[in-house]
Amino acid sequence: MENLTEKEQKNLKNEKVTIIIDGNDYKVNKGLTVLEAARSVNIEIPSLCYLKDVNEIGSCRVCVVEIDGTRNLQASCVYPVREGLKIKTNTERVRRARKTAVTLLLANHHRECTTCIKNLNCELQNVSDNLGIRNIPFTGEMKDYGLHNNNPAIQRDYNKCINCRRCEAICRKIQECNVYSALNRGLDTIIAPAFQKDLADVSCIMCGQCVIACPTGSLTDKEYINDVWEVIKDPNKHVVVQTAPSIQVTIGELFGMPIGSFVAGKLVTSLKRMGFDKVFATDVTADLTIMEEGSELLERITKHPDKLPLLSSCCPGWVKFAEHFYPEFLPNLSTTKSPHEMCGALTKTWYAKKYNIDPKNIVNVGIMPCTAKKYEAQRPEMVSDGFRNVDYVLTTRELGRMIREIGLDFANLPDGEYDKPFDQYSGAGMIFGATGGVLEAAVRTAHKLSTGKEAKVPDFNDARGQSGLKYGEVTLGDKNIKIAIAHGTGNAKKALEMYKNGEKKFDYMEVMACPGGCVGGGGQPILGGKDHKFISLSYRHNRADTLYNIERGKNIRSSYENPRIKEIYKEFLKKPLSDISKEYLHTSFINRSKTPYTKSDN
Predict the structure, then answer these.
(1) Chain-centre distance of CA 149, in angstroms?
(2) What's the per-residue H, E or C state across 147-213?
């Protein structure tokens, strides 16, 4: 359907055809594949390589079915439905073919299931169990490629790769980083960066979308759980933990709660019971980021229009993408640090002095939605007064493992409260977790700073929704500014290319590397099960909707109203863009365009 216009696609979806599946008639949308049509009427067909709208190649042969009029079994993920099509999904021949395909995969698969991070949430494991595979009669060649983890964010275990190519497809089609490709041939084929380099040595942006897409334990986030347990038990360490806004609407999914459940109170209680000394809301420093970035926007509009467009910089995956592929736009990036790095910097400066704690004894742990935050924490620029801003970053999934490890019944925990002084946050800080939220929040503040009047809230329909690339206009005083919002770096690339060729102009653009923004980050829960949410990725809007719904009920909805922000400026930072703010809350960027195997070398 890629070559059809949007109107043609819509008309096609509204047309119905009648097909016969296992002897029963069903009306389904015209244009669907057999796999999609079967699932739409609650008939399960297993698959492994299929990733809706991203990887539809029919290579794993696990989804085969019998089609009347064809001699061979057909891959249902690439076979289109038509009027009167007769399909058989559960014949002896089909079941035997599926079992053989999966058994061959398992024959040379390193099957350490009980110690694998993906245990009980592995698609290969689930398909094998559903097919009733209880023994492997074949003896495959068990190669040992070793672990590739020479980077702070993502671990690659080629021994568990099944060559489904989902990582390659999402990196190429959605993120447009082109990190992965097929190397070697035949049984020696692996999906890897060029020359099988570690991800640290190529133009990987550490976004973790490949981790979300991987059906096995071949791609995982690099764990720091044991390191964090060690510092928690050290009586000489003051260990604080901060939670990103999006974690409040995703962590519950790991414990069977509905998608998008708001569980901030339970999250706080679980962290306190783990032994953290203080639990902080990164939402507070999201408000601080908004104050700095909103002020930076106004300064560029009024004093330095040559430095427009202003591009957001709170997403480390996007920043690394710009550093690799669009270094000419680095002067346009906002210099403000991300909220998580701001919280780390203030913890070891203002907070340490305020509460008379030696900063060398403070350990700051971030619970973040993405793997790229692990990389960001290790950037050389992220240091204040000689101390690294954030010491450890755990993903949502890692936190879930820690909660299970100590046996907490998360869903039934009482609600706790965040600790001062990072406890009160505005609705604007909260919507940071959804695509468009950063821009909306910054424009609210810029409007107040430029006019002295409150912006209409919510009045930013152009900024909301799940469209991958959005454009609009907002008014700041006597000026109308053009805005753009992109999520998924492939969409950012489109926006920047259109800006360069004059097709589209904008003054301010928010970019989030992950589709859906932080709610769809590479460190968020990987949802499986019969509903195939891990395949459709359509669940992300439910998480974002919850953030916006909670935001509407907040008494404080704009960052400049937050009493904690006023306190921080009064006691430490003076005002937005002050010298001390620039010292602790702003950063710089690196031109990485000469890194091997990037666009610049082609």
Answers:
(1) 20
(2) EECCCCCEEEEHHHCCCCCHHHHHHHHHCCCCCCEEECCHHHCEEECHHHCCHHHCCCCCCCHHHHH
Is the confidence at residue 428, as pLDDT, over 80? no
Question: Using CA atoms, how far apart are residues 408 and 275, in angstroms rounded to an integer?
Answer: 13
Please check whether residue 356 is in contact with residue 333, taking contact to mean a CB–CB distance below 8 angstroms. no
Q: Are residues 441 and 577 in the same domain?
A: yes
Would you state the pLDDT for residue 590?
93
Q: Are residues 100 and 230 in the same domain?
A: no
Could you tell me how far CA 437 lies from the centroid of its own chain? 15
Q: Could you tell me if 450 and 581 lie in one domain?
A: yes
pLDDT score of 374 more than 60 = yes
386: left (phi over 0), alpha (psi -120 to 50) or beta: left
Question: How far is Cα 260 from Cα 540, in angstroms, rounded to an integer?
Answer: 8
Same domain for 100 and 231, yes or no, is no
Residue 398 confidence (pLDDT) above 60? yes
pLDDT at 14 over 80: no
SS3 at position 499: helix
Which pLDDT value is given to residue 255?
A: 94
- Tell me whether residue 324 is in a domain: yes
The Cβ of residue 554 has, within 10 Å, a number of other Cβ atoms equal to: 16
Residues 81-138: pLDDT tens digits? Answer: 999 999 999 999 999 999 999 999 998 888 889 999 999 889 999 999 999 999 888 7
Residues 231, 96 share a domain = no
- What average pLDDT does the chain have? 88
DSSP 456: P
**CATH for 267:** 3.40.950.10
Pull the structure tokens for residue 273.
Answer: 């019971």
> What distance in Å separates the CA atoms of residue 586 and residue 517, rounded to the nearest whole number?
22
Looking only at the bridges linking them, the beta strands covering 219-221 and 469-476 are unpaired
- Count of other CB atoms within 10 angstroms of residue 575: 11
CATH classification at residue 55: 3.10.20.740
**2 versus 346: which is more confidently predicted?**
346
The neighbour count for residue 302, using CB atoms within 10 Å, is: 12
Q: Which domain holds residue 64?
A: 6-104
Task: Identify whether residues 90 and 232 lie together within a single domain.
Answer: no
pLDDT tens digits along 35-94 = 999 999 999 999 999 988 889 998 899 999 999 999 999 999 999 999 999 999 999 999
Task: Provide, rounded to the nearest whole percent, the portion of the chain with pLDDT above 70.
Answer: 90
CB neighbours of residue 272 within 10 Å: 17
What pLDDT was estimated at residue 569? 95
Q: Tell me whether residue 527 is in a domain.
A: no
3 pLDDT exceeds 60? Answer: no
CA-closest candidate to residue 467, choices 540, 405, 527, 526? 540
Specify if 183 maps to a domain: no
**CB contact set of 401 (below 8 Å; sequence gap of 6+):** 225
List the catalytic residues: 293, 296, 314, 334, 373, 376, 381, 518
For the chain, the domain total comes to 2
Lowest mean pLDDT among 132-141, 212-221, 277-286, 580-589: 132-141
> Residue 334 falls within a domain, yes or no?
yes
